[in-house]
Amino acid sequence: MAPTRAERAASTRHKLLDAAIEQFLDKPYDDVSVHDLAKAAGVAYGLVAHHFGNKRGIHLEAVREMARRLEQGRRRQVPSARGCGTSPRPLRLHPAKPACLPRADARRGPDSRTIVDTGKELAVRLTSDVLDLDPERPAVRLALRSWLGTVNEAAVAWLQDGRRSPSTT
After folding, report:
1. What gap in Å lies between CA 64 and CA 119, rounded to an integer?
2. N or C: lower Cβ tally within 10 Å for the chain?
3. How far apart (Å, rounded) are the C-alpha atoms in residues 33 and 47?
4. With contact defined as beta carbons under 8 Å apart, do 20 and 89 qualify?
């Protein structure tokens, strides 16, 4: 039986999100065009606007999707440095790349700030789980937020210096 129109639309949306996640993790926001996103997804250019409105819309949804996939992976297993994820496609990322997307996105307005703050909360919870700490304790939250900020800045500097893997440092 042929897929329904709704199933084809959902498939196209997932392809676009997967492509957006990959593109925005590989390049700065300003270096990714709607044409790049459509080409990477193998769909028509106009479908980006149809599903997400514009580049900003798909960028915000890509950040939300990354957080959803990380949260779903958290429920299944403790994430490793190599990334985690679930359907429609796992996040198979350079270990430092997830740190760069929220950092760049935070400058793009209040919607982005909310997504970034939610991601930071998720990172505190994930790290608390791994270390068996209580994330509700103020001292634990402060320590983890400070440590995660340091890791984020180190990852960004690492990628800006052009390092591709830990073995090259």
Report:
1. 9
2. N
3. 13
4. no
User: Distance between CA atoms of 169 and 167, rounded to whole angstroms?
Assistant: 6
Distance of alpha carbon 58 from its chain centroid, rounded?
12
Of 52, 50, 70, the C-alpha closest to 61 is 52
pLDDT in tens, 7-53: 999 999 999 999 998 888 878 888 899 999 999 999 999 999 999 99
74-127 pLDDT, tens digit each: 554 443 333 333 333 444 444 444 444 544 455 556 676 777 777 788 888 888
Backbone angles phi, psi at 155, to 5 degrees: -65, -40
- Give 5-82+91-168's CATH code, choosing from 1.10.357.10, 1.10.10.10, 3.40.50.300, 3.30.230.10: 1.10.357.10
pTM of the complete model beyond 0.90 = no
Token couple for 123: 């990172």
Structure token digits, residue 54: 């514009």
